[in-house]
Specification:
The complex is a heterotrimer of chains A (390), B (183) and C (91).
Chain A: E1 3-8, H1 9-19, E2 24-27, H2 34-46, E3 52-55, H3 59-71, E4 76-80, H4 82-98, E5 103-108, H5 122-126, E6 133-136, H6 140-154, E7 163-168, E8 176-181, H7 184-190, H8 214-246, E9 253-256, E10 263-267, H9 271-284, E11 289-294, E12 296-298, H10 302-309, E13 314-319, H11 329-338, E14 346-351, H12 361-377, E15 384-385
Helix pairs in contact in A: 1-2, 1-6, 3-4, 9-12
Chain B: E1 2-9, H1 14-27, E2 31-36, E3 46-54, E4 69-72, H2 77-80, E5 92-96, H3 101-108, E6 113-117, H4 119-127, H5 133-144, H6 153-160, H7 164-177, E7 179-181
Helix pairs in contact in B: 1-5, 1-6, 4-7, 5-7, 6-7
Chain C: E1 30-34, H1 44-48, E2 54-56, E3 62-64, H2 74-78, E4 84-88
Antiparallel strand pairs in C: 1-4, 2-3
């Protein structure tokens, strides 16, 4: 029986992890991810989740424990945020190059200094190149759904890469919303028991993470990238299956009222639904505007984004992160993705929502209007910062 | 959609108030969203909590800046905060205070629809502690009928276990004792 | 040489103990020579050899496996009876 309940974003993630029947958990608490770890350790202590909870002294160790447990064939989970993800950074490359289906949830948080526990995408953008499947959630239901999907995708025999679900710190992790929880049998059908093909076993020994001198390293990276690229179609397949079972659909790029739109705004994460309200308001005034969201960040959905924006004259991109001395990292990737297209839209960059700052409906509307002005008249700046006090 | 802003101090349960009413609304089949004023917890510091209740999926994910209803858990906050900031026209302010409606209007210039209740007294007598969040739910329900009073029973029981009944009693007393002046 | 298509999932090595096929004897510039008549079979060369290149033969003698011996000289240094001598590796 499915049931509709009110759940905080963090607890929704914990519930997905419980229903995925994870074997090993290892995590270090850090705001705004703390409630996820607290709830999971409670579940283990109360016997609601039959898993090993490995207490560690840092995020570096948390990910190391996950790597070891995953290599032994366990279904594993960790979660972190901001500075914690940065401390984990060194180890993040290991499961992706060793092809271990670790699942991690990041409650996105700004990076110090000044010290900020509040949300933005600086932590996510800093781990762009780690070779994990990376997915962004927009509301609490999606935080639940996409955590389940992360296991389905990561453990697919044609993927076997780690997967990371990003949910905005506080704006999703600390917000209570209605969530439809599925029946356990539906979850079991979606993510059946998993057997890693080369799980560590003394009777069938293998060497993982071997030494890779120059004569073989390039081949190792080529093979990793080819496999990672081909996981793109499995992500879509998994979401198709998800829809079949749970009747909610996900796509690598999702569009909102983009049909016939001249201007398309692009945002990622929990700000997307607020931006829809600005689109609704402008559509009411007869303006041809729409919204696109990158749900799948890695592997990058080139074809889908080109298709989603087809016909638009202008793409306005909001980044919740700044690459110092450059600008918005998402915008940079989109410009690059469209560079060789014949009928490409102009692309204008905005940065906002840093360190937990809200973006109002008016500000989304401003970005679209100001984006058109910049597109028509040019600008001396590479990007404009939203809501900054002059 | 109705938007509610709760003013309290860290430790007074403003966030819990928002969460309890949020759960009650969701259990009624409505859409609801509760969020704290994000950040580290600081006992005694003025804090805000936010609540939205709607018949449709709630898309906005930002602090409530133009509330329909303001709930004030601590009367001392009236001296340091403009609790009516951004209040929609026709909005309601609900205050835990032993002052009368006239006194509040003349001292703080509140012109909107106004409700007062001595929630500290009720909480002390019913719960034994001056924590007014569950008491003020009674005032909120009387003034807005935003959810049914019965819908709070399950969330309160889930949250407070053995002391749920006292909290239910406090809520019911405030429901009866809140004075509301229409404008 | 392996192409990228030949690599196993995650570039793991599935053949157990295949490091034994790796010849380190080529690294040697000095070579230990053993005088079996002085050897008292105490086994210290066997214990101290960092590459496990000293083996016990069926006849009960300790012998150096030159496929692995890197010529570090630890065995000669540790031998209490001077049964091992390091000589320069001939071309």
């Amino acid at each position: 029986m499915t049931k509709r309940v009110g759940l905080e974003g963090s607890f929704a993630v914990s519930e997905a992890v419980r229903m995925a029947d994870v074997d090993v958990l290892s995590a270090y608490p850090i705001t705004p991810q703390t409630h996820i770890v607290e709830r999971l350790s409670e579940m283990v202590a109360d016997g609601d989740l039959d898993a090993e909870f490995i207490c560690v002294e840092s995020e570096h160790s948390a990910m190391s424990a996950c790597v070891g447990a995953s290599a032994a064939g366990a279904r594993v989970f960790t979660c972190t945020a901001g500075q914690g993800l940065e401390l984990m950074h060194e180890v993040l490359y290991i499961p992706s190059s060793m092809r271990l289906p670790v699942v991690a949830v990041v409650a996105n948080r700004a990076l110090s200094s000044p010290l900020s526990v509040w949300g933005d995408h600086s932590d996510a953008m800093a781990v762009r190149d780690i070779g994990w499947v990376q997915i962004f959630a927009e509301n609490v239901q999606q935080a639940y759904d996409l955590t389940l999907c992360a296991y389905r995708i990561a453990e697919d025999k044609d993927v076997l890469f780690p997967a990371m679900v990003h949910l905005d710190g506080f704006h999703l992790s600390h917000v209570i919303e209605p969530v439809i929880l599925p029946d356990q049998r539906q979850v079991d059908d979606f993510i059946p028991e998993f057997e890693y093909p080369f799980a560590l076993n003394p009777d069938k020994p293998v060497s993982m993470g071997c030494y890779g001198p120059p004569y073989i390293y390039t081949e190792a990276k080529k093979s990793q990238n080819v496999a990672f690229e081909s996981s793109r179609k499995i992500v879509s397949k998994a979401w198709g299956e998800f829809e079949g079972i749970f009747e909610r659909s996900y796509l690598p790029v999702e569009s909102y009222r983009t049909e016939d739109a001249d201007v398309i705004l692009l945002v990622m994460g929990s700000f997307a639904e607020t931006a829809m309200l600005a689109i609704d308001r402008m559509r009411k005034e007869g303006k041809k505007v729409g919204l696109a969201r990158l749900r799948l960040w890695r592997p990058f959905p080139f074809d889908e984004i080109r298709k989603a924006v087809k016909g638009a004259k202008l793409l306005v991109v909001l980044d919740r992160c700044i690459s110092f001395g450059y600008g918005g990292p998402v915008c940079s990737e989109l410009r690059s993705a469209f560079y060789r297209e014949k009928n490409r839209p102009d692309i204008v960059s905005f940065i906002g929502g840093l360190g937990g700052r809200d973006i109002t409906i008016d500000q989304y509307e401003y970005m679209i209007k100001r984006g058109k002005e910049i597109s028509e008249n040019g600008s001396e700046e590479e990007f404009e910062m939203i809501g900054v006090r002059q | 959609m109705r938007e509610i802003r709760i003013h309290g101090r860290g430790g007074q349960g403003a966030v819990t108030l928002a969460e309890l009413v949020c759960h009650a609304a969701i259990n009624e089949g409505k859409y609801a969203q509760s969020m704290p004023s994000f950040g580290p917890e600081r006992r005694g510091a003025p804090v805000l909590a936010f609540l939205r209740i709607s018949d449709e999926h709630i898309k906005i994910r930002a602090e409530v800046i133009t509330p329909d209803v303001v709930v004030v858990l601590d009367p001392g906050l009236l001296n340091i905060t403009d609790v009516t900031s951004g209040l929609k026209s026709g909005g309601t302010v609900l205050i835990n205070t032993k002052k009368s409606i006239d006194e509040i209007r003349s001292k703080f210039g509140v012109e909107s629809r106004l409700g007062v209740v001595n929630a500290v007294e009720i909480a002390r007598e019913t719960l034994g502690v001056p924590i007014t969040n569950t008491t003020m739910i009674g005032a909120l329900l009387k003034a807005t009928k935003i959810v049914k009073k019965d819908s709070l029973i399950e969330p309160l029981k889930h949250r407070f276990g053995p002391i749920a009944d006292k909290n239910i009693k406090a809520m019911n007393r405030a429901f009866d004792e809140t004075t509301i002046e229409e404008v | 040489m392996l192409s990228w298509k030949d690599l196993e999932l995650g570039s793991i090595v599935t053949e157990p103990g295949n490091a034994s096929a790796y010849k380190t004897g080529d690294w040697r510039s000095n070579k230990p020579i053993r005088d079996q008549s002085k050897c008292i079979k105490c086994g210290l060369c066997y214990i101290y050899c960092p590459d496990a290149a000293v083996e016990l033969s069926k006849a009960g003698n300790y012998e150096t496996n030159y496929f692995y011996c890197k010529g570090c000289g630890i065995c000669a240094n540790e031998c209490p009876r001077g049964a091992l001598t390091m000589i320069v590796e001939e071309e």
